[in-house]
Amino acid sequence: MANVLVNAPKTAKRGSVVEIKALIMHPMETGFRPGTMGKIIPRNIIERFTATWNGTEIFDMEMSPAIAANPFVSFFAVASESGTVGLRWTGDEGFVVEERVVIAVE
Amino acid sequence: MRALHFGIGLAIIFAASWAAAQVGADKRRSGTQDMGEALQKMQDDDTANPGMLFVQLGSQSWAKKAGTADKSCADCHGNAGTSMKGVAARYPAIPKGAEAPVDLDGRINLCRTENQKAERLPPESRELLALEAYVAHQSRGLPIAPPADPRLDAFRDQGAAIYRARQGQLNLSCAICHDDNAGRKLAGVTIPEAHPTGYPIYRLEWQTLGSLKRRLRNCLVGIRAEPYASEAPEYVMLELFLMDRAKGMVLEAPGVRP
Amino acid sequence: MDRRRFLVGTAAIVVVPLGSASATPEAMAEAIRKVVGDSAVTESRVTLDLPPLIENGNTVPLVVSVESPMTVADHVKAIHVFNEKNPQPNVFSARLSARNGRAAIGTRIKLGDSQKIVAIAETSDGRFWSASADVIVTLAACLEEST
After folding, report:
1. Angle formed at CA B199 by CA B193 and CA B203, multiple of 5 degrees
2. Cβ separation of C107 and A53 shorter than 8 Å?
3. CB contact C17 to B (< 8 Å)
4. Count of CB atoms within 10 A of residue B164's CB?
5. What does each C-alpha distance from B87 to B93, B108, B202 come to in angstroms?
6. How far is A87 from A99, CA to CA, in rounded Å?
7. What are chain A's partners, defined as 3 or more CB pairs within 8 angstroms?
8. C8 interfaces chain B, CB cutoff of 8 Å
9. Helix (H), strand (E) at residue B176
10. Contact B53/A at CB under 8 A
11. Residue A73 · residue A21 · CB < 8 Å
């Protein structure tokens, strides 16, 4: 089950810069840690986080095993026009999660 | 039990051991105050506190039907914002018809088995922690208020005795660290006063949410004592004692701790 | 959690090196070279914010920000963060544009040990800028039994 917390303003002035913060539940297993039987636990990370504004990509981040469990990312965006910010996380084991928030620009 | 001196033998561990706690002004410190600014900010910002992911998960479980009774928590308890407000602040408590106290996760599991007719959720399982976090979150900002039930006294006293007894290969008591040496550094880490203000906590060391029991186990392992079995009554006794010791302090669940 | 042990008395905490999987200053230099090629890197314009004392290396808040007008003509195109001692030198690489308005990224990283962190920004004119920070990581006390 997708478990995501996104923080973005519901409204923004046209042309202003807004901060978008996103937190997602994920173990970010490094692939370097030994498990119970001394066997390495297979890597299971989010590899990529992208954001779009009304479909146009505005942010793209490639992650590594050095990103902490339950990854948190904050970034900025220019509130160009009212619309939908789409957030997408993809990773190992076919992990795909999408979340959308709507920002009204006035 | 505010002894002024502690045995000189302890000097192997702490150069000078001294009871700093004093009667009078409330000088108690939540573990939050021992953390750096960055971690305090992480705890205080709901969209940055990873524990809030579990609270969100818990709110989903709250509304999900389970067991042969096919009932959700919400079916009986309604809106948790009102029905669960203040509940975490007064646990452990003795359920109706029972004789021994249960802690909050014990109480939730009672509802699982008796009211939902579902299987118990395993200790430290994600679903149990999420429900516990969701329930505890409803008491955030409220003072810890243990119930005035005289039947609890005997259990609490046993908890106090455990707290003060030396144990483990290192022959230490909880009190030696958490009363007499709180605020000092141990291998670079500040020893907190051990107030259960934030539970369940998102502990960075665990990279996940965990219960007060798990935290206590860590301290027992730290002093090389055999931790009690995962659902042993000793944990509830210790929790009763710790909650009483922290009476009036504000609940912060879900806390963030290093 | 056998890796680290809580030893009162000697106040010692043993860290078993991660062995061959460990990144090194050389591996970091190599990873940086892959990004910047032969270009010069100027230590300016980039700010790397980390807590002065890291209480647990599992989750370390980090903010990288770059001075830039963030216009179409002059903006930050990419921000990369590297480390010396985690198993791999790359921490993250992000692509930005004028649409971001502000060149700042916050995240949380894992740091297995005290080490140097480097952030590199590439601006739209193809130049590279950097900042670095030396971080000290405290290892947690009172850990789990072996899991």
Report:
1. 80
2. no
3. no
4. 14
5. 10, 11, 20
6. 5
7. B, C
8. yes
9. helix B174-178
10. yes
11. yes
Tell me if chain A has a CB within 8 Å of the CB of C90. yes
Q: Where are the domains of chain C?
A: 38-137
One-letter amino acid of C9: G
In chain C, count H helices and then E strands. Answer: 1, 8
Q: What's the average model confidence in pLDDT over B233-255?
A: 97
Summarize pLDDT for B43-52 with one digit per residue, the tens: 999 989 999 9
State the virtual CA torsion across A23, C23, C83, A30 in degrees, nearest 10.
0
The verdict on domain C38-137 having CATH code 3.90.170.10 is: no
CATH code for the domain defined by B30-258: 1.10.760.10
Indicate the domain borders of chain B.
30-258
- What SS3 class is residue A55? coil
pLDDT exceeds cutoff 70 at A85: yes
Do C8 and B172 count as a contact with CB atoms less than 8 A apart?
yes
Please write the tens of the pLDDT for every residue from C66-113. Answer: 999 999 999 999 999 999 887 789 999 999 999 999 999 999 999 988
Residues of A near C (Cβ–Cβ under 8 Å) read 17, 21, 28, 30, 32, 36, 53, 56, 58-69, 71-78, 80
Q: What is the pLDDT of residues B155-184, one digit of tens each?
A: 999 999 999 999 999 999 999 999 999 999
Chain C nearest CA to B193, separation (Å): 14
The confidence score (pLDDT) of residue C22 equals 61
Contact A3 B57 (CB under 8 A): yes
Q: How far is B84 from chain C (nearest CA, A)?
A: 31
pLDDT at C147 over 60: no
Residue C2 in this model has a pLDDT that exceeds 60: no
- The C-alpha angle C12, B170, B220, rounded to 5 degrees, equals 95
Minimum CA–CA partner of A29 in chain B? B207
Per-residue pLDDT band at A2 (split at 50, 70, 90): low
Output the six-digit token pair for A103: 């920002």
B83 CB burial (10 A radius; 0-12, 13-18, 19+) = middle
Instruction: Tell me which fold the domain A4-105 belongs to.
Output: Immunoglobulin-like (2.60.40)
pTM confidence score: 0.89
State which residue of chain B sits closest to C107, comparing Cα positions.
B48
Q: Is A68 within 8 Å of C109 when comparing Cβ atoms?
A: yes
Q: What is the pLDDT of residue C141?
A: 55
Which residue of B lies nearest to C13 if distances are taken between CA atoms? Answer: B187
Compute the average pLDDT of residues A1-30.
93
Per-domain residue ranges of chain A? 4-105
- Please report, for residues B93, B149, C56, the alpha-carbon distance to residue A67 in angstroms, rounded to integers and kept in the order given: 40, 47, 14
Q: Look up residue A71 and give its two tokens.
A: 């990854």
Copy the structure tokens of residue B7. 């045995």
Mean pLDDT over A47-55 rounds to 97
What pLDDT score was predicted for residue B22?
A: 41
